[in-house]
UniProtKB/TrEMBL annotation:
Isomerase as UniProt keyword: no
Cofactor requirement: pyridoxal 5'-phosphate
SUPFAM superfamilies for this protein: PLP-dependent transferases
Ranges of residues in domain Aminotransferase class V: 3-366
PROSITE patterns recorded: AA_TRANSFER_CLASS_5
Family statement: Belongs to the class-V pyridoxal-phosphate-dependent aminotransferase family. NifS/IscS subfamily.
EC number: 2.8.1.7
TM ranges: none
Pfam families: Aminotran_5
Keywords: Iron, Iron-sulfur, Metal-binding, Pyridoxal phosphate, Transferase
Name under which the protein is recorded: cysteine desulfurase
Length: 387
C-alpha cells in the first residue's frame, strides 16, 4: 500500500481543478494580454477565477489579489518592498517576526540585515506560539512591518492573528501573514483577521504547483518585486498562467466546501493516528489538538532518528517528513523543536505527519501498524535509547 502523509509539503491536484485547467493547456492557450481572439477568449475564465479567489477569502472590491508564482515570492515581495518603501527611505527601521517562520520569511529577513534592517524575532512558548502580550511589548514607532504566520508548517499550531494585527495597527504598522498552511484547512476571512497582506500557494490546498497569490488590503502601496511589464495593473510583471489561476481558484473553492469535512473526518483520522502514536512509550506531540489545523502532527519519538524513521516508512510505501536533514557531515536537528525548547537529542527525532481529505481509514490503520514496527526495529538498534 502507498500512503501519502506529507500534505503540508504539497498535495495532489483536485480532480475538479484539473478538469477546469485542461482547456487552457491545449485549446485556449493565448496570452491574456494579447489583443487578438486567442488572448481575449481567456478573459471570462480569468475574471471568474479572480472572483472565486476574492469570495474564498472574503476580500473586498477595493482590495487587490495579485497572482504570483508561489507564497515564497509573495513573502519576499512584502518583506523586500517594506525595505524599499519604508526602511531604505529612513521612515522606519525594524521588522518584527517570530522564531518559527517559514524560511521564505526568515531567510529574507536575515538577508535584509545586510542592508541595515533591524530585526526583532519573538521566541515561542512550548506549544510553538507567541502571545499578543509579547508583540505588544516589542512594538514601537520604528516598526515597518509585523510578519507572523497564520498556521505553522510543522506543528500546525494556529497563531492569534486577529489579536496580533490589532496590536500592530495600534502602532500604525502594517501586518503580514503567511497563510500557506491555513487555507483549505480552516476558515480564512481577511476582513475578520484585518491583515494588510496575506500570502498563499495553490499546491498546499490541492491546486497546481507554480502558482500562488498575495492579498493586499485596500490596494495599498507595495513597490513591485518584478519589473518588465504592466501585468496585474503594473503590480507584478509576467505573463499570466491562465490554467494555473483557474486551477488555483477552483481548488480553493473546493477546499472551502470541504472545510466541515476537514474538521470532522480529517481531524478524526488525525486524532486516531496521534492517539496510536501516544500509546507508544516516550512519544510526545507538539501542541494541543484544538489549537492546531485539523490535519497535522509533529511527533517526537525518543531514541529514533527522524531520518531513520523516514527510511523505514518509505520502504513501507508511506510518505512523511521530518525537520532533520542529512548534511555533509552532521545530522541537522529540527529547528522548530529547538525553538520550543526541546533538548538536543529530541530535536533529532521529529516526525511530521500531515493528512488530507483524500486519506482513508484503511491508510491510517496501515500507517499505524508500520510506524509501530519501525519504532520497535529502530529502538532495538539504537545506541541512545535505554532498552
Amino acid at each position: 500500500m502507498r500512503v501519502y502523509l506529507d500534505n503540508n509539503a504539497t498535495t495532489m491536484l483536485d480532480p475538479e481543478a484539473y478538469e477546469a485547467m485542461k482547456p487552457f493547456l491545449t485549446e485556449k492557450y493565448g496570452n491574456p494580454n494579447s489583443l487578438h481572439q486567442f488572448g481575449s477568449e481567456t478573459h471570462p475564465a480569468l475574471r471568474g477565477a479572480l472572483d472565486e479567489l476574492y469570495t474564498a477569502i472574503n476580500a473586498k472590491d477595493s482590495d487587490d489579489i495579485i497572482i504570483t508564482s508561489c507564497a515564497t515570492e509573495s513573502n519576499n515581495w512584502v518583506i523586500k518592498s517594506t525595505y524599499f518603501d519604508k526602511i531604505a527611505t529612513g521612515e522606519k527601521s525594524r521588522i518584527i517576526t517570530t522564531a518559527v517562520e517559514h524560511p521564505a520569511i526568515a531567510a529574507t529577513c536575515q538577508f535584509l540585515k545586510n542592508f541595515g534592517v533591524k530585526l526583532t524575532i519573538l521566541d515561542v512558548n512550548e506549544e510553538g506560539l507567541i502571545t499578543p502580550e509579547q508583540l505588544r511589548e516589542a512594538m514601537g514607532d520604528d516598526v515597518a512591518l509585523v510578519s507572523v504566520m497564520l498556521a505553522n508548517n510543522e506543528t500546525g499550531m494556529i497563531f492569534p492573528i486577529k489579536e496580533l494585527a490589532k496590536i500592530a495597527h495600534e502602532w500604525g504598522a502594517p501586518f503580514h501573514t503567511d497563510a500557506v498552511q491555513a487555507l483549505g484547512k480552516i476558515p480564512v476571512n481577511v476582513q475578520d483577521l484585518d491583515v494588510d497582506f496575506l500570502s498563499f500557494s495553490a499546491h498546499k490546498f490541492h491546486g497546481p504547483k507554480g502558482i500562488g497569490g498575495l492579498y493586499i488590503k485596500d490596494s495599498q502601496k507595495l513597490s513591485p518585486l518584478l519589473h518588465g511589464g504592466e501585468h496585474m495593473g503594473g503590480r507584478r510583471s509576467g505573463t499570466l498562467d491562465v490554467a494555473g489561476i483557474v486551477g488555483m481558484a477552483r481548488a480553493l473553492t473546493m477546499s472551502n466546501k470541504f472545510l466541515d469535512f476537514e474538521n470532522s473526518h480529517v481531524r478524526r483520522l488525525r486524532d486516531k493516528l496521534e492517539n496510536a502514536l501516544l500509546e507508544i512509550d516516550d512519544v510526545s506531540v507538539v501542541g494541543s489538538k484544538d489549537r492546531r489545523v485539523p490535519n497535522t502532527i509533529l511527533a517526537s519519538i525518543k531514541g529514533v532518528e527522524g531520518e531513520a524513521m523516514l527510511w523505514d516508512l518509505n520502504r513501507a510505501g508511506i510518505a512523511a517528513s521530518t525537520g532533520s536533514a542529512c548534511a555533509s557531515e552532521a545530522l541537522e536537528s529540527n529547528p522548530i523543536m529547538e525553538a520550543i525548547g526541546a533538548d538536543k537529542d529530541l530535536a533529532h527525532t521529529a516526525l511530521r505527519l500531515s493528512l488530507s481529505r483524500f486519506n482513508t481509514e484503511e491508510e491510517i490503520d496501515y500507517a499505524i501498524g508500520e510506524i509501530k514496527k519501525a519504532v520497535k526495529r529502530l529502538r532495538a538498534i539504537s545506541s541512545t535509547f535505554a532498552h
